[in-house]
Amino acid sequence: MSRVVLVTGVSDDFAARCARALASLPATTVIGVDLVPPRRPLDAVTFVRADIRSPVMTGLITGRGVDTVVHLPRRGPGRSRAAAKELAVLGSMQLLAACQRAPGFRSLVLPSSGEVYGSSPRDPAVFAEDRGHDGGPRSPFAQDCLEVESYARALGQRRDDVTVTILRMAPLMGAGVRSDLTRYLTAPVVPTVAGFDARLQFLHPADGARAVTTAVERCRPGIYNVGAPDVVVLSQLLAWLGRPSVPVPRAVARALRRTRSRTGLVVPEDLDGVTWGRVMDVRRIADELGFQTHWSSRQAAEEFVALASPGVLRRVLDGRGAEEGNEDG
Question: Whole-model pTM above 0.85?
């Protein structure tokens, strides 16, 4: 049986990777949609330049016989909060309304984020999918993800013939990954919250794309955590990168985040995540969908470190090692 899959946001590298992986599946036609042309070739994916907020999406989904939509809400880096929310939340709402009106539509796969769990000293060491939301502080991005998830679940309730699969992904990590977190990790000097050493769980983009293709193939409803089963602590990762860290009180870190343009110091939007850390239980997706990552968190981090520009501490150590080698010679 043939399948027609529509993937949104394909100008983003990860969305484009997902679209290419889906196009490699047998009897699968993939349509990639975005307002901006993709930066890299999409191979067998058909690109359509369109705005998911536009009424034309209903005609596109119906006219092309789309039965599956993989929706990757855009963060809109560098945009104002209002513009980012319109792009991610209102765009998602309008896209899902178009899906609801399409009679042949049968499946939605929504890659979301583990940030929706928040992070605090009251939380468990590992988050399971049935963990409730305690209303604690969350980043604006996490709040947007929760709102988009609620729209996706509502679609499944209104259309009982539609399968809704939500993938709560750990932060992407690997060669060339650009995100709020990687910008923080590769700053010349990294402010950390004094007294804390966050446990970090990662997902390699190749594994993320495999998780999406698995969700499309298996077509099982529910929420699934996606990430490598191991963790890396923040101080360990900064040491590999050679970035000097400056421990500051949490209140100071929050202030630095607001004054980044004046101080030049980078503090991530998800400050809670690099304070207390966040680790997800990934057994459900293994048990129910048969998915396991190929890359560990450590391997994904090591790949990122290998291609990142060396920090000052790495340059000092490398230079010292070269000098010692010359003396030995």
Answer: yes
